Description:
The structure holds two protein chains of two kinds.
Chain A: H1 3-7, E1 13-23, H2 27-38, E2 43-47, E3 61-63, H3 67-77, H4 81-88, E4 89-95, E5 105-110, H5 112-124, E6 129-133, E7 136-144, E8 147-155, E9 159-168, E10 177-180, E11 183-185, H6 198-204, E12 209-216, E13 219-221, E14 231-233, H7 244-248, E15 260-264, H8 267-276, H9 281-284, H10 298-304, E16 312-317, E17 324-328, H11 336-344, E18 354-356, E19 359-366, E20 383-385, H12 395-414, H13 427-438, H14 462-473, H15 478-500, E21 502-503, H16 507-515, E22 525-526, H17 527-532, H18 553-564, H19 566-584, H20 601-610, H21 615-619, H22 626-646
Parallel strand pairs in A: 1-2, 1-9, 2-6, 9-20
Antiparallel strand pairs in A: 3-5, 4-5, 7-8, 8-9, 10-11, 10-19, 12-19, 13-17, 13-18, 14-15, 15-16, 16-17, 21-22
Helix pairs in contact in A: 2-12, 3-12, 3-14, 4-5, 8-11, 14-15, 15-18
Chain B: E1 4-7, E2 16-22, H1 26-30, E3 34-39, E4 54-60, E5 67-76, E6 87-93, H2 96-108, E7 112-113, H3 118-125, H4 131-157, H5 159-183, H6 193-213, H7 215-223, E8 225-231, H8 237-245, E9 263-269, E10 272-278, H9 288-303, E11 306-311, H10 317-330, E12 336-340, H11 351-355, E13 365-368, H12 378-390, H13 404-425, H14 430-448, H15 454-457
Amino acid sequence: xxxxxxxxxxxxxxxxxxxxxxxxxxxxxxxxxxxxxxxxxxxxxxxxxxxxxxxxxxxxxxxxxxxxxxxxxxxxxxxxxxxxxxxxxxxxxxxxxxxxxxxxxxxxxxxxxxxxxxxxxxxxxxxxxxxxxxxxxxxxxxxxxxxxxxxxxxxxxxxxxxxxxxxxxxxxxxxxxxxxxxxxxxxxxxxxxxxxxxxxxxxxxxxxxxxxxxxxxxxxxxxxxxxxxxxxxxxxxxxxxxxxxxxxxxxxxxxxxxxxxxxxxxxxxxxxxxxxxxxxxxxxxxxxxxxxxxxxxxxxxxxxxxxxxxxxxxxxxxxxxxxxxxxxxxxxxxxxxxxxxxxxxxxxxxxxxxxxxxxxxxxxxxxxxxxxxxxxxxxxxxxxxxxxxxxxxxxxxxxxxxxxxxxxxxxxxxxxxxxxxxxxxxxxxxxxxxxxxxxxxxxxxxxxxxxxxxxxxxxxxxxxxxxxxxxxxxxxxxxxxxxxxxxxxxxxxxxxxxxxxxxxxxxxxxxxxxxxxxxxxxxxxxxxxxxxxxxxxxxxxxxxxxxxxxxxxxxxxxxxxxxxxxxxxxxxxxxxxxxxxxxxxxxxxxxxxxxxxxxxxxxxxxxxxxxxxxxxxxxxxxxxxxxxxxxxxxxxxxxxxxxxxxx
Amino acid sequence: xxxxxxxxxxxxxxxxxxxxxxxxxxxxxxxxxxxxxxxxxxxxxxxxxxxxxxxxxxxxxxxxxxxxxxxxxxxxxxxxxxxxxxxxxxxxxxxxxxxxxxxxxxxxxxxxxxxxxxxxxxxxxxxxxxxxxxxxxxxxxxxxxxxxxxxxxxxxxxxxxxxxxxxxxxxxxxxxxxxxxxxxxxxxxxxxxxxxxxxxxxxxxxxxxxxxxxxxxxxxxxxxxxxxxxxxxxxxxxxxxxxxxxxxxxxxxxxxxxxxxxxxxxxxxxxxxxxxxxxxxxxxxxxxxxxxxxxxxxxxxxxxxxxxxxxxxxxxxxxxxxxxxxxxxxxxxxxxxxxxxxxxxxxxxxxxxxxxxxxxxxxxxxxxxxxxxxxxxxxxxxxxxxxxxxxxxxxxxxxxxxxxxxxxxxxxxxxxxxxxxxxxxxxxxxxxxxxxxxxxxxxxxxxxxxxxxxxxxxxxxxxxxxxx
Lengths: 647, 468
């Protein structure tokens, strides 16, 4: 249906003309709308329910392993998630502190209601952005020869909005249904209304639709919990905030924090579950959507890891002004009455008062193989999708795609090249490349082990990697960029100073090294060489480093990591160089793979389906072999020469 | 752009041998190796030479300063070279020993052994081949991708492949333990995982090291075992050489110094391909031609896999033991045997004094032999066999690595795993350990074909002979 046809439907009216329409105001939608509006485009953001903008319907936390890195990257690009999360944090931690800086992962517990309110207030103040509660049911498109392009959206009430680009961030809402045992509700998460019709509208355009499931645990009233039977877990206050902007301005994470708690399941938990397995919709066949392996329901854990007789459960606060507590690791789709028995089998929860039930949720999504690395659809021009609609899972994964979709919708309208972050540029690049190149058959969660260049893709250097990209795109303003530049200069200057400052083998130095379990040096040695030694910290060297000027923590951390990891980073950079070679060999979009002699049949069809942008992406498609890549290399070269001859 | 090198002339004996090097920025790498004697334009450094001129130059090992050979080096500048990158061609004296030494020095300087077809592939990528040639390459690839499938199938069945897959699987499970700790830190309830990983890594490291070590045998099977006969003039070298040859090839006379240059013969000992080299007799000399031969004899003796030091009945004890000592040291304790010759006319009366002169002589087998009557000559063959067997431990299934590329990948993987253990031990994080293990797996994957990288595409070009 195009604009004209839409306006001819019953009660239809023209409700607004926009550059960019964003459907869905979850984490992806908020970032997309924020980016588009910041880039100067007239933007409208639709939500099914205004008070649940940027809702955290599952765990009340932002960050974690690989996810914390994503939040830092989003912020480095000029996104908004990190800033809101900093403001709403009630407990902060740096995970993996003992396992090396490459896997340090910031995580913060959020005040859930506040998160939603702060995000809403921030977006409301943004010039050029309109927020509208409405149920979008139809994507409007027009044909342009063989090409189909978006031209707007229509809502349930037949309000017609024109738009030059549309970003759909429907989360788990499209044709959603929630399941608790035998009880099935046609509802979105948290009992919110679901999206109906949009999925069909996409299907009618020949966009491939899949169906996934995920789930969330119960919420319990803190007043009914006996915390004395639980292990207390406090936050850490000496860590940087998510936002580099905040960090450079001296912002500190909240010093007063709320604890989390942990318990182990009991033999009774196991018994209750095994007695009621027949009522699980997963095992009875009610749920057909594919769920995530890494975040299994508690009944799944007991079934699949039968050698483990107990599992750890975390009890997390949902905010300052609520007594609701979230039971991480206890998601289930068993019936409500069984849920009560399960929860009460846990230590400290025998009197638990449940405030919300656990449920599984099924939803429609778009097969990400139908997307370009810019997150634009290969089928409908100007249509972008981001977040769970692309098969990912998690707030941070959604926001990461949201900012890229928002930027690229804007770039398309401005007639500029899309911003594509490659696998060596950030977790964002790994995430999007995996989705659009390999597709996914379960909700995709970011993990640090998915990144080939993990030593380089650290949370502490996300700004070094991506702030120039954000600046180039126009999301980072000159003032912030100047601060960023002087931070980078400070890092380089300090590294240079440490390299060129030599200290003699004084008693003081011997003591410092002894404390780190290190042999004393035989002669004068540079501070750089000392810092490279295991367990010797920048701080510890202060007594022998007389000329040291005070530096901020972020600069010190960057200097230490760069020096300690230098050898390993160098090797990784070599690999990145090799990787970039194939990424730079572009594959023209008009290649007909079916007709390339020498490609195996499987490769022909896979390449035709994915239409990779370059040889690197082609090499990562499952079913495309190294031999196929060689054939493509030769084909490209010959094609180039033939064209050269013709000119 | 990484650089690579290979010998472009066929294996075996020839008057000269040409080693080709391709890669950008060769000047800095090669400068320390050349001591230019004469060059067009009188340039003293390789890097100062303009393209398409050659220089007569000494080739030295920059680490030791030892002069390996006198060579002719020719410089080619991009884009006008075979590969389109900067290239150097070194013409050195023929013979395995010199060639191997030069290649060793190049490898140690970070110039990789060329993969099969790498020169042609680079030429292709740099647009040095015309369209007809490019199409020929395409045809080969089409044929090759089918053949590669068959080859991969064979590799899958192979013993080496099975062994490597086992190691890979073990490493992947170690890696998954680390990743588990990293991805789900809050569920990290198994602190002993770190120890398990270290144990697994060091086990895999030693298995890989053994595999890599088997190349010592594999190399000999491919390139022939080099056995050098060393002794003073008229010590019976040529007689022994002729015994090996089974016919009169060397000029055998009783005038000392007849064999001015070395001669080689290929024989087979229990399936081991062997090249026996009769070197020039070692003694102080003013004869210019002979002096050159003597130097060459020392070089050959020190590069050989096995050296027979010949002592005739008339040699002075002190002179003999001095020569044995020099040889052992020059050979860096590689296997050396002391051979008392002419046992038919009576062995050297100072036999025990000679063999007992130095502690280090104990490592040498002592053989008494008469080439004329063939008395005890089977001991020489036994020594050759034992030398071969001692090169590496026997692996289950008799796996022997036959390619230098495999050896360097396996060795590198093994080194990386040892490093991963050290990283964990020295307080570096799991992040480093994981990165290093991955890198080791990538090395192994380049043999088993599990890692999909640009390099693997190069196997296609393996159709083209190395260095061509």
